[in-house]
Each structure stands twice: as C-alpha cells, then as structure tokens.
Q: What sequence folds into this?
C-alpha cells in the first residue's frame, strides 16, 4: 500500500485496518518506506528485490 498521497489521520486508520486483516489471515505487514507497506499472505515469501520494486512503484489511482 502506498499511502504517500493520504493525510496522516487517514494513513493511520488504513494501517490499523490492514494490520487487522493481516492478523486475521495470518499474513505479514512490513514497512518498505515511511509511507509504503507490503501486505502478504502467510504462504508468500517476498524477496528484498520485490520490496525495493514496491517502494519505487508509482501510485495508481483508479478513480
């Protein structure tokens, strides 16, 4: 999740929500940068290269 374009209060709420999802699904959440988080299910291993690519990816707004 790239939260760079969100306000601080919205970021906190979304990270709290995502943390609950990850906990419920026995996955993991990792901070890639200060405003980018990587959520993955329990059966997925993510390499450092993939984490770097996630941090460098641009935000895609579907609206």
A:
């Amino acid at each position: 999740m790239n939260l760079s374009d969100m306000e601080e209060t919205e970021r906190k709420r979304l990270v709290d929500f995502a943390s609950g999802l990850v906990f419920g699904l026995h996955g993991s959440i990792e901070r890639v940068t200060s405003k980018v988080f990587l959520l993955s299910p329990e059966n997925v291993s993510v390499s450092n290269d993939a984490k770097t690519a996630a941090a460098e990816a641009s935000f895609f707004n579907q609206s």
